[in-house]
Specification:
The protein is of the alpha+beta class. It has one domain (6-161): 3-Layer(aba) Sandwich (Aminopeptidase), CATH 3.40.630.30. The protein contains 5 helices and 7 strands, in the order βαααβββαβαββ. The longest helix has 16 residues, at 108-123. The structure holds coenzyme A.
Length: 163
Amino acid sequence: MTDEATYRPATPDDLPLVTETLYLALSWDPEDPIPPFEVVVSHPEIAKYHDGWMRPGDAGVVAEIDGAFAGMAYFRLFTDDDQGQGFYDADTPELAVGVRHGFRGSGIGTRLMQELGRQARNRGVPRISLSVSKGNPAANLYARLGYRWVSDEDDELMVLDLT
Ligand SMILES: CC(C)(COP(=O)(O)OP(=O)(O)OC[C@H]1O[C@@H](n2cnc3c(N)ncnc32)[C@H](O)[C@@H]1OP(=O)(O)O)[C@@H](O)C(=O)NCCC(=O)NCCS
């Protein structure tokens, strides 16, 4: 299928796209609906993924089709004291990705993650981590892009080594 999207680096004005991306990522399972958008994104465990966007260490890529938001991949650094779900270490930003319904399966997610990987390499980021639920087919995409499971015990944490 043709990928007609254009891709641009995220900016400080993209907070609404960051929160939409988070919601897309969290609501990945149609069999397991989640609470409404406002409830989810204001929850402290979720707000930590967008509060103060863009702070140092934040980076993202936005996909647009005819000027409309189609999807985004972004990452954020966490600390030992304030960890995300997919925390690896304080040098490793955690990635989130979401593509709007109707645009999935046409290569946009792949391209978003590749572009974000390029940004990370340019910044000297050593690796990127992410958390993916068991059963989410997105794990196939991550594995295809070189992400590896960190351990057999914690099979929701994947890492892409960049060095
Ligand atoms: C995961 C996601 C970002 C991938 O974006 P995309 O544009 O659909 O991805 P691509 O077309 O580049 O690649 C398709 C791959 O994504 C996987 N995928 C996951 N959910 C999918 C969906 N709903 N539709 C199509 N592909 C999906 C497929 O397994 C496929 O991998 P494969 O080619 O190795 O089989 C997107 O499908 C999405 O937003 N899903 C719901 C939110 C989500 O799961 N986010 C990640 C949370 S960890």
